[in-house]
């Protein structure tokens, strides 16, 4: 039986593995990955990337199958607010006020992967 710390570490390793896959996938699609796991005190953005002239804040979601729905469905209102909060801080910190931006989700379900551009608004 695994303790809470072991389970948390295993979840972190799994998340990191699928974030690596997502970053490579984005690069193949023409994105330039700028940052990974950008953190502020209360929130995190998995990947920040440039797609042509647009700054994309990317959330990566994985599920081994669709028994519990699509991975992107886990990006609920609370999660969107946290991502938006971190994005605002990133923009202010780097003075990127006049930059086009959007929020994307990379959804990985089993061995299928897709980008959902403009997955949600600010």
Defining traits:
alpha+beta; 2 helices; 5-stranded mixed sheet; 5 strands
User: What does the main sheet amount to?
Assistant: 5 strands, mixed
Shape: globular
Record field, number of beta strands: 5
Helical percentage: 25-40%
The number of helical elements comes to 2
Order of helices and strands: HEEEHEE
The N- to C-terminal Cα distance equals 42 Å
Mean pLDDT: 92
Radius of gyration: 15 Å
The largest sheet has its strands arranged as 1-2-3-4-5
> In percent, how much strand structure appears in the residues?
35-45%
Low-confidence stretches: none
Alpha-beta content class: alpha+beta
What can you see in these coordinates?
The chain is built from two helices and five strands; from the N terminus they run αβββαββ. It is α+β, with helices and mostly antiparallel strands and 122 residues long. The protein has helices at residues 4-28, 77-93; strands at residues 32-40, 43-51, 54-63, 100-109, 112-120.
């Amino acid at each position: 039986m695994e303790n809470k710390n072991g389970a948390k570490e295993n979840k972190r390793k799994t998340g990191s593995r699928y974030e690596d896959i997502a970053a490579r996938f984005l690069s193949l699609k023409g994105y330039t990955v700028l940052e990974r796991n950008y953190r502020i005190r209360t929130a995190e953005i998995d990947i920040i990337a440039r797609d042509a002239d647009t700054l994309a804040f990317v959330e990566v979601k994985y599920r081994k199958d669709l028994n519990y729905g699509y991975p992107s469905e886990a990006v609920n209102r609370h999660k969107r607010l946290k991502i938006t909060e971190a994005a605002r801080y990133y923009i202010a910190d780097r003075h990127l006020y006049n930059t086009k931006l959007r929020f994307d989700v990379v959804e990985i379900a089993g061995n299928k992967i897709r980008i959902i551009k403009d997955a949600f608004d600010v």
